[in-house]
Each structure stands twice: as C-alpha cells, then as structure tokens.
Amino acid sequence: MNAGEFDNWVATQLKAVETALEALVPADAPAGLGLAMRYAVLDGGKRLRPLLVMAACEAVGGDEAAAMRAAVAVELIHAYSLVHDDMPCMDDDALRRGKPTVHVKFGEAQAMLAGDAMQALAFDVLTPDEGMPAALQARLVSLLARSAGHAGMAGGQAIDLASVGRPLDEATLRDMHRRKTGALLEASVLMGAACGATTPEVWQQLSRYGAALGLAFQVVDDILDVTEASETLGKTAGKDQDNNKPTYVSMLGLEESRAYACRLRSEAHAALAAAQLSRTACLTWLADRVVDRNS
C-alpha cells in the first residue's frame, strides 16, 4: 500500500464513520441535549480511534459491520472525555477542534449532561437487538469499559489532575499517559481485532502495538503543545506548560522526546511484524501518521 492508497482508505473510512455517527447521535434529545451531543462529536477530530478499530478488523478479516459499531462507540467515549476534560473543574479550556468547547457554547450543566449521554450511548451502540452475537457484544463492552474507567482513561485523568505542579518520575508519567490516552487507543485496536478470529499470540502482539502507539500519541501531543500554534492544533497551545503540568518534554527535553516517539513507533512496527498477519498496512501507516503529525 502506498501513501495515496492509504489516504483513499482513510477518506472512505472517515466518510463511513461520519455517516454512522450522524445516524446514531440523536438530534431530538430533550431540551437541546442532542444539539450539544452532535456539536461535541460530529464534523471534527482526527477519528484516529475509529480508524484503528477498522484497520485492526481488516487485519484479522473481521466483521466490518460490528467493527463500525465499535468505531462509533469508541469515538463517543473519546468525545465525552474531551467535553468533561475541557470543563472549568478540570482543564478549563475554551477551544477544541478549532471551535469553542461545549461548555463555552452550551453552558457547564449542558456540557456535563452531553458527556454523560454520549458515554451511555456508546454502550447502547454496542448492544443492538440483532446483528451482533451476544458474546461479541459482551467482549466489546468489556474492552471499552475497562479502557474508559478507573484502570484506564478516568484513572489517568485523576493522576493528571493530582500531579499539577508536582515532580513525577518517568515511570509515573508513563503510567499516567498509558491510562489517560493509551488505554483507549489500545482498546480501539483490540475491539477491531475482537470482530474477527485471532490466536493468543496475535492478540498479544496487537495489544503491544496498541500500547506503543498509544504512548507515542501522547508523547507527540506533549511535543506539539510546545512547538505548534493554537490555530494548527485546534486547541490552546502551551496549556501544559502554563499550568505547570508534567510532560515528556518537561522531563526529557524536546529532542529526546522526539527520539522516544520514534522508538515507540519502531516498537509498534515490530509488534505488527511479530503478529504475522497479511493485511497490516493500514495499521503500519497509522503508527507513522501518529508520530509524524503536526496537529
């Protein structure tokens, strides 16, 4: 697969994900709640997590319809987390995906409810009345819940909030990022893989790939926070430094952080090679794009 073929694959998947989100996120939820939900999740973002779901499903020859539901669910969880993270009680940010954050646009109470509703909707999407085996529904729900809860994203955010202004060692910083960002990215890969048949060895290597890519994503985020402008990022640049938050750049320095991101990419590539699957080109390209991105 060359770059043009990969870009075509991405465009096709993004269109399908957007269509599914349009159909599944209700506009008619009461009292304007649907408008806030759709504002939070539609027409924005990289959709990296849905792309990972679909690429992993392709790698194992899985059920694409089930994977699309998983892709929508994981994006809903990601979007809800951003809505809550941006609120004044957490990161207090006014810009997300190049537009005002949900609490700025709709108020804090509506933003909180929109996040809550998107989290619930994610699990509703994974449990359709028909078309998906019950065992697969249960496995996808388990993977998503564990990555989003205390052992994953929520736990990582708790560590993040408790670490402002405090020195952290590299192991603690890595643990925070693996939970806050990496867990949901790794789960995206595994949810896609769950839609097909895998051996324990393949599952282990795809998990290793997802973990390396997830940490690489956060390392690059830390780099971009100090090297790019808000207009490029679509969110407020420099906030980590302004808020005295520990990051890989503050701990390792800019050049060593870049080198670390490249080592993590190599680890992701090595995991795919060890999995010995025939259709991992999209997963390989996604790892490259994560490290080479500028936003």
Could you please describe the fold and organization of this structure?
The mean pLDDT is 93. The chain is mainly α and 295 residues long. The longest helix is centred in the last third of the chain and has 28 residues, at 200-227. α3 (48-59) runs antiparallel to α4 (64-85), α4 (64-85) runs antiparallel to α9 and α8 (153-162) runs antiparallel to α9. The chain has helices at 3-24, 33-41, 48-59, 64-85, 102-106, 108-125, 134-148, 153-162, 170-194, 200-227, 230-233, 239-242, 248-252, 254-275, 281-292; strands at residues 95-96, 99-100.
Could you give the topology of this structure?
Blueprint: H1 3-24, H2 33-41, H3 48-59, H4 64-85, E1 95-96, E2 99-100, H5 102-106, H6 108-125, H7 134-148, H8 153-162, H9 170-194, H10 200-227, H11 230-233, H12 239-242, H13 248-252, H14 254-275, H15 281-292
Helix pairs in contact: 1-4, 2-6, 3-4, 3-9, 3-15, 4-6, 4-9, 7-9, 8-9, 9-10, 10-14, 10-15, 14-15
Protein name: Polyprenyl synthetase family protein
Keywords: Isoprene biosynthesis, Magnesium, Metal-binding, Transferase
Family: Belongs to the FPP/GGPP synthase family.
